[in-house]
């Protein structure tokens, strides 16, 4: 493998890797990305009560969405296939993003705060009578950096989501929730339209609300892949998901993002074009966090 043909990265990720000076490290880490779901990965998936997905809606807006269910609701059904029981909730912006008879590109991340483990699986999804069937194209795990540890202390809270509040910009209460967040999920798409779902974490305040229409966050040192920032080089669309771990409420944002490179580091600047806030969207209730020792 040479510098001009390094799978599995597209030109956007390669450009960021070269700019930051981590091409060799990225090439090494990239060898961990495969198409198959190993037994340890399959076992991990079956223990998870939640899965985050990223995709574009019918208007091309990118969203990051939360799916939940009893352990086993996400299950490997073959070496490259996964079944997600229940699918996307009817209230979610991506509820109509997976039409019958079509393979829709999707990115997923299973993150377990109890163990600080996470796994990403990207591919295509088709609807089934019981939910979604996902065909994996990329499967890989990430390190536990910036994952806050939480205990799951309630899973059977009545899953009755409140009415969804839609908007174009953040309300004052939503801005405060973003400022208090220690974790969010981000969905992006590559030059071929293939989505990726990832995680960002830090101490509360690491996400700054510049205005009701603009957020920023620092891009901390990670695994050198630069899949998210690489996608943003190719396609500025992005979707963010903030979860209230104590109440199960979700705040989903769609918009565009770009990365600013300075001698002091990298900052991602996100422009909000749409919001969807859902009270009690998830039946899961989590403990207060034990912050990651990697957080700056």
- Please identify, by name, the CATH architecture: Roll
Q: Sum up the overall morphology in one term.
A: globular
Largest sheet: 8 strands, antiparallel
Distance between the first and last residues' Cα? 35 Å
Rg is: 18 Å
Query: Per DSSP, what share of the residues sits in E-state strands of 2 or more residues?
Result: 35-45%
Number of domains: 1
Helix content: 10-25%
Q: Which superfamily, in CATH terms, is the homologous superfamily? A: Electron Transport, Fmn-binding Protein, Chain A
How many alpha or pi helices? 5
Low-confidence stretches: 1-6
The total beta strand count reads 17
Give the SSE order as H and E letters: HHHEEEEEEEEEHEEEEHEEEE
Average pLDDT for all residues: 94
CATH level 3 topology: Pnp Oxidase, Chain A
CATH class designation: Mainly Beta
What structural class should be given to the helix and strand makeup? mainly beta
Q: Can you tell me about this structure?
A:
This is Pyridoxamine 5-phosphate oxidase. InterPro entries: Pyridox_Oxase_N, Split_barrel_FMN-bd. Pfam families: PNPOx_N. Residues 170-260 form the Pyridoxamine 5'-phosphate oxidase N-terminal domain. The chain has a single domain, classed as Electron Transport, Fmn-binding Protein, Chain A (Pnp Oxidase, Chain A). Helices cover 15% and strands 41% of the residues. The chain has helices spanning 11-20, 23-30, 39-46, 172-180, 227-234; strands at residues 50-56, 62-68, 74-78, 81-85, 104-112, 117-128, 131-142, 152-154, 165-167, 183-189, 195-201, 208-211, 214-218, 237-243, 250-262, 265-278, 285-286. β1 and β2 (62-68) form a beta hairpin.
């Amino acid at each position: 493998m040479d510098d001009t043909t390094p799978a599995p990265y597209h030109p956007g990720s390669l450009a960021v890797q070269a700019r930051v000076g981590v091409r060799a490290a990225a090439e090494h880490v990239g060898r961990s990305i495969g198409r198959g779901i190993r037994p340890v990965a399959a076992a991990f998936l079956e223990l998870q009560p939640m899965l985050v997905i990223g995709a574009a809606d019918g208007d091309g807006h990118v969203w990051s969405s939360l799916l939940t269910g009893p352990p086993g609701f996400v299950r490997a059904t073959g070496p490259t296939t996964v079944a997600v029981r229940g699918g996307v909730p009817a209230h979610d912006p991506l509820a109509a993003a997976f039409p019958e008879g079509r393979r829709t590109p999707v990115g997923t991340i299973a993150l377990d705060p109890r163990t600080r483990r996470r796994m990403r699986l990207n591919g295509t999804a088709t609807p089934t009578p019981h939910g979604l069937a996902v065909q994996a194209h990329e499967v890989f795990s990430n390190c536990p950096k910036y994952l806050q540890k939480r205990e799951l202390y309630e899973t059977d809270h009545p899953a009755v989501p409140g009415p969804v509040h839609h908007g174009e910009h953040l309300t004052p209460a939503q801005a405060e929730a973003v400022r208090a967040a220690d974790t969010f999920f981000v969905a992006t798409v590559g030059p071929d339209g293939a989505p990726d779902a990832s995680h960002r974490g830090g101490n509360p305040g690491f996400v700054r609300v510049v205005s009701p229409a603009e957020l920023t966050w620092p891009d901390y040192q990670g695994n050198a892949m630069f899949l998210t920032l690489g996608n943003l080089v190719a396609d500025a669309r992005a979707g963010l998901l903030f979860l209230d771990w104590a109440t199960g409420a979700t705040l989903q944002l769609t918009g565009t993002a770009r990365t600013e490179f300075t001698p002091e580091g990298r900052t991602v600047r996100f422009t909000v074009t749409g919001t969807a806030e859902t009270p009690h969207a998830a039946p899961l209730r989590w403990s207060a966090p034990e912050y990651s020792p990697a957080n700056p």
